[in-house]
Amino acid sequence: MDSPPQGYRRNVGICLINPSKKIFSASRLDIPSAWQMPQVPYWLTYDFPPEVREKLKHQWGSDWKGQAQKWFLLKFTGKDEEINLLGDGTEKAEFGEWSWMSPEQIVELAVDFKKPVYKEVMTVFAPHLQ
């Protein structure tokens, strides 16, 4: 897909694996018990539930239906101690904790509207996660 469908925000997702083939995930501060893989706003698609869409309409200043994502599989070659969810402190923290997880945990702990995309990502990358 060269560009996302009309009304979908561009986004890049990253399935980051460590040498043990576990996948990086972080817990969201704004959605209790929801974990997600890294993503960057800039193409699998998902629709936002109405309550999320309304909240993001104010936050992003636009009425997006959902996000269109391109996913990449990357290997983490650093040390766990180098992972920093707070950045340089100039922006509000988005995540509280992080963990290396199995593909099953990634899907199970995702917010409901992302689960179908996460299942598809796990299926596509399955040969590299074993």
UniProtKB/TrEMBL annotation:
UniProt KW keywords: Hydrolase
Q: Which GO terms describe its biological process?
A: nucleoside phosphate metabolic process; ribose phosphate metabolic process
**Keyword Transport found:** no
GO molecular function ontology, one term from the record: bis(5'-adenosyl)-pentaphosphatase activity
Keyword Hydrolase applies: yes
List the record's Gene Ontology CC terms alphabetically. Answer: chloroplast
List, alphabetically, the InterPro entries matched.
NUDIX_hydrolase-like_dom_sf
Protein's name in the database: Nudix hydrolase 26
What is the species listed in this Swiss-Prot or TrEMBL entry?
Answer: Quercus rubra
Highest classification ranks of the organism: Eukaryota, Viridiplantae, Streptophyta, Embryophyta, Tracheophyta
